[in-house]
């Protein structure tokens, strides 16, 4: 008889429904393959942070029922694994009930971690101090800005002793399959994976995001080199002439290559990279607009605002508030 495992998914309002579904269904399928209920799970949430009592809203506004964190009965089975499932607004989330649950689970030796942007509240409560962690690539800049002393990776998931994290999306499937493989072997995990036409369980070391430079590598080496330089110098922009020299071609050649390959001039491509990074930081951090502007190579908040409006149709304030 296999050892039973109690899993608790703590839902942050605006959580990723796909990330949660992949994780839960992997456990459901594992029970089927094993022929017994090894994995049991429950959904919980801090209802003090919800506007209404009709469930926890996901990022797609589908609401799920959950057990209130603060009202959990002392007779409930404590989790062996506790995962905080986040979404687009998790960086703002601050819950005393969650803090207590995380620290209590960690003190008992449970596995504690995050799915998608749930890494923000887990890190904020000190649970990733001294451990590797990862987060969705769109939030990496904000995550690093807020927690500069953490060991933050760009992998699709991380398992470091009794801590874990994953980038969200379908990576939560790989994370749970890895837990199943650790406990029940590669064949069992492979049979579970076949339910999802998942031909292989991705390894944690796999990078989750392809940068612009890597995307360009298959097109033209000079364009790829130029894009890499741009990505490395968002805060202190180089001139197009400097980039061309570093790439080993003339400014005219570089311009011609960018227009033919990307439909944009090198200068416009570079500006778009900087504006998009600023847009990401506006949504995911509490940094001031002026700080973000300087960090993305703009002269001032108004300078950034002009280009953000042009590219995304919103002022920094409007963009930060979201739709």
What characteristics describe this protein?
323 residues, Arc Repressor Mutant, subunit A, 2 domains, seven-stranded mixed β-sheet, two-stranded antiparallel ribbon, 14 helices
Describe this structure in words.
The protein is built from 14 helices and 11 strands. The protein is α/β, with parallel strands linked by helices. It folds into 2 domains: 5-194, Class I glutamine amidotransferase (GATase) domain (Rossmann fold), CATH 3.40.50; 212-321, Orthogonal Bundle (Arc Repressor Mutant, subunit A). Strands 5-2-1-6-7-11-10 form a 7-stranded mixed beta sheet. The chain has a two-stranded antiparallel ribbon with strand order 3-4. Strand 8, helix 4 and strand 9 form a beta-alpha-beta unit. Helix 8 packs across helix 11 (266-284) and helix 11 packs across helix 13 (301-312). It is globular, with a radius of gyration of 22 Å. The model has no long low-confidence stretch (mean pLDDT 88).
């Amino acid at each position: 008889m296999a050892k039973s495992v109690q899993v608790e998914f703590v839902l942050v309002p605006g959580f990723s429904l796909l990330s949660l579904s992949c994780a839960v269904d992997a456990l459901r399928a594992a029970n089927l393959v094993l022929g017994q209920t090894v994995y049991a799970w429950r959904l919980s949430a801090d209802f003090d942070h919800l506007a209404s009592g009709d469930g926890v809203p996901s990022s797609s506004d589908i609401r799920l029922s959950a057990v209130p964190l603060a009202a959990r009965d002392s007779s409930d089975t404590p989790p062996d694994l506790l995962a905080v499932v986040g979404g687009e607004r998790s960086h703002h989330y601050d819950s005393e009930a969650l803090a207590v649950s995380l620290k209590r689970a960690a003190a008992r030796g449970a596995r504690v971690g995050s799915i998608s942007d749930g890494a923000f509240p887990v890190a904020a409560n000190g649970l990733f101090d001294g451990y590797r962690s990862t987060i969705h690539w769109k939030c990496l800049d904000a995550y690093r800005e807020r927690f500069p002393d953490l060991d933050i990776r760009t992998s699709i998931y991380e398992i470091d002793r009794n801590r874990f994290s994953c980038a969200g999306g379908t990576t939560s499937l790989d994370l749970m399959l890895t837990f199943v493989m650790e406990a029940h072997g590669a064949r069992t995990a492979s049979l579970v994976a076949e339910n999802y036409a998942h031909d292989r369980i991705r390894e944690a070391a796999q990078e989750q995001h392809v940068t612009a430079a890597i995307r360009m590598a298959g097109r033209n080496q000079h364009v790829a080199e130029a894009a890499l330089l741009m990505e490395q110098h968002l805060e202190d922009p180089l001139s197009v002439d400097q980039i061309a020299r570093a790439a080993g071609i003339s400014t005219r050649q570089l311009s011609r290559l960018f227009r033919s390959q990307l439909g944009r001039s090198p200068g416009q491509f570079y500006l778009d990279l900087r504006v998009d990074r600023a847009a990401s930081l506006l949504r995911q951090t509490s940094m001031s607009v002026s700080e973000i502007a300087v960090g993305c190579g703009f002269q001032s908040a108004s300078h950034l605002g002009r280009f953000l409006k042009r590219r995304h149709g919103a002022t920094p304030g409007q963009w930060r508030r979201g739709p």
